[in-house]
Amino acid sequence: MSQRVLIIGAGEIGKALSVVLKQRKNIEIGFWDKKSRPSAGKSLDDSVQSAQFIFLCIPSPALAEVVCDIKPYLRRKTLVVSLTKGMDKQTGKFSSELLSRCLGKRHITILAGPMIAEELKTGAPTRAAAACTKRGFKKLSQLLTGTSLYIEYSSDIQGTSVAGVLKNIYAIGFGIIDTLKLGSNAKGVFTSSVILEMEGLIRQLGGKPETARSLAGLGDLEATGHSRDSANQVAGRKIVEGKKSKKTAEGLLSLEPLVKRIGRKNIPPTLSAIQKTVKNPKKAREVFENLIKNA
Q1: Which of 122, 157, 192 is the last residue of a domain?
Q2: Which of 176, 221, 174 is nearest to 195 (CA)?
Q3: Is this prediction's pTM over 0.90?
Q4: pLDDT tens-digit profile of 57-89?
Q5: Are residues 17 and 148 in the same domain?
């Protein structure tokens, strides 16, 4: 019997996910994207009603609206899996908070980890954390069995969502270090500082600090921070070069909402260095050299 999957968002990660799912037989995959036609001529409500799994592969600014749009048509047993890693600019809420409030925790999964779209498309194996109920994890595991995407269970829905936001912002820092040519040693110091900050921030924002060292934290940070295909890493490079990036970087979108959420007086040093560089790229070298010296 076929399982019906709806992917909302036909961008790079949505298309890469479809390549992964097509490694399995008996999966019907439909797409919905506001910029393109719905698959098979179905409306959004029809697509949602017929889906057993819904993957949200959309930018964070669209999340609240999409969740409101799909909520009336969700079936009781449908699992909503979010790959969106950002914050709602209006409310300052993380994706886990928006989804939990609107849909309830038993309906949602936060999927986070090293999942660079360009590599997923090639079938290269990777592993991610699925933060959800145990029942939700079992369903998602069965769907992904036999694919190149392996998952491990996490009960920390909030921490996994926070980690996804933080790693995007910190990945900008790797792009800055690359462009300044500060070297691998500086990256090592930077990584150590980042993990310590992530632990503290995740705890402060309602998650488990150990999530910082999980696939959703350190694993995703390493992939995103060092990949030349990462929009956030590219954003860091472009900031120092004084150019605009063609890709939307979730880290840049989330930076100010995060600072507002934690309070400007509570910004830790590494996060502060990124914020200062975004605001004044000409001081990037001074700011980052001081950061490395004093980390």
Answers
A1: 157
A2: 221
A3: yes
A4: 999 999 999 999 999 999 989 999 999 999 998
A5: yes
